[in-house]
Amino acid sequence: MTQIRIKDAALFLGVSDDTVRRWIDNGALDASVDEAGRKVVDGVDLARLAQEHAANPADPSDMNSSARNRFVGLVTRVTSDVVMSQVELQCGPHRVVSLMSTEAVRDLDLKPGSVAVAVIKSTNVIVEASRSVS
To answer: Is 95 helix (H, G, I), strand (E, B) or coil?
Structure first.
């Protein structure tokens, strides 16, 4: 069982330590005490709570897709040369960067402030994990 400290749980959920403690106090999240006497939460319970509290904007496209990883966000920067462009989106707390042709940027009319959807096919996603949890 992965045990996660309150301060780290708060970081992963994007809330304050006090909010995590309130969730523990009102029974939304179970806690235990680790060997060092610190209050910790179970990683599985934390993942469940993170999914329940995830707030993704509605996808403005009316498309069916095999790609399940769709992040709606705002374009924050477009850097272009003659052939290629770098497009940055802020999708909730996540910054997503895409490289594409400058022609595609023009065709999609991407510019700062535009709403866009980053579609990520799972075959191109790298998952990393630390060897130990703090």
So the answer is: strand
Distance CA 111, CA 134 (A): 40
In this predicted structure, what is the pLDDT of residue 132? 62
pTM of the full predicted structure?
A: 0.64
Chain-centroid distance, C-alpha 86: 20
Higher pLDDT, 96 or 51: 96
What long-range pairs does 124-129 form, CB within 8 A, spacing at least 24? Answer: 125/69
Residues whose CB is less than 8 angstroms from the CB of residue 104 and which lie 6 or more positions away in sequence, other chains included? 85
CA 102, 104, 108, 114 torsion-angle sign: negative
DSSP code string of 1-31: --EEEHHHHHHHHTS-HHHHHHHHHTTSS-E
Contact between 128 and 2 under an 8 Å Cβ cutoff? The reply is: no
Q: What is the DSSP letter of 58?
A: P
Q: What is the largest CA-CA distance in the chain?
A: 59
Cα separations (Å) of 126 from 37, 118, 120? 35, 16, 11
